[in-house]
Design a protein that fits this description.
The chain is an alpha+beta fold and 83 residues long. The protein contains four helices and three strands. The protein is globular, with a radius of gyration of 15 Å.
């Protein structure tokens, strides 16, 4: 991404982003209800992983098959899988 303009970086992301609108937001994260929206969007979008620095969200560990990890663990998983 180095050497690219902000518009070029954004264009790269737009190619891989999927906008989803969850119809139901479950009550999952007891300490922070706003985090429930993150989980609902991930489930609606068929995500495999949520990468977050939020300790309340990471404290859940996973929900409906969607793992919730810190950035360092996500990097490790990508390195191991080669993706």
């Amino acid at each position: 991404m180095f050497g690219k303009t902000a518009q070029a970086v954004l264009a790269d992301y737009v190619e891989v982003v999927e906008v989803v609108a969850p119809t139901k937001v479950p009550s999952v994260v007891l300490n922070d209800a706003d985090d429930d929206h993150v989980i609902a969007a991930a489930v609606a979008g068929g995500a495999e992983l949520i990468v977050s620095g939020d300790s309340d969200l990471r404290g859940i560990g996973s929900h409906l098959g969607v793992g919730i990890v810190a950035a360092a663990e996500a990097v490790e998983r990508v390195a191991v899988s080669g993706s």
